[in-house]
Amino acid sequence: MANSNTKGFGLIPAGTLGATPATGGQNKYKIDAGYAHSIFQGNYVQIDSAGGANTNPGYIIRGQQAVTNPTIGVLNGVFYNAATTEKPTFQNYYSQVTPANSEDITAFVIDNPFQQYLAGTSAQLGANNPAIEAQMGRTMGMAANSGSTISGQSDNTLTVASIHDINNTWRLLRIAEDPSNEDGTAANCTVVVVANKSQWFGTGTVSA
Questions:
Q1: Cβ neighbours around 89 below 10 Å, total
Q2: Are 1 and 186 spatial neighbours (Cβ–Cβ below 8 Å)?
Q3: Cβ(159)–Cβ(172) under 8 Å?
Q4: Which residues contact 23 (CB under 8 A, 6 or more apart)?
Q5: pLDDT tens digits for range 128-141
Q6: How many angstroms separate the Cα of 78 from the Cα of each of 71, 82, 140?
Q7: DSSP helix/strand/coil, 72
């Protein structure tokens, strides 16, 4: 049976490991003024340790250039002073803006390493239940940062074709309890993932 979803929705917070209280907590980070790549709500991010043509070291950058990229969390919105009006402005995604006086943009990032997320799959997890269960505990990522400039929401899915035991950003835990989207033999199955801890507690980021 096909799933009712027809495209992805990025990563949506859904509880924590161990069923501990899920506060939906987020912290403030900075995006360099004029950073040249959009980041949508539900896309994951990282801190740039090297700097480059698009940003300086220490700022938030998109995290989805490759499925193996480490992450510090998931973007949940930005705040800045608009260049034309100088009014405080909140958006649920980052859209390549340069604020008034070239100030930095404040990024709100869901950064609990034990936060679980809902995500959709790009393809079937397996042809039958044993094949699907064999994927649990393995890792996947998302390629590129895409989404809607109307809603601000990511439309990315987890890339099943690149599933790997240890290398990728998100650890697959289980199929979500979503009756219209829980068919693992079809694309757009909703699953529950958590950040790959071997990456989180490791080192290194990738420059934009």
A1: 16
A2: yes
A3: no
A4: 112
A5: 999 999 999 999 99
A6: 18, 12, 26
A7: coil
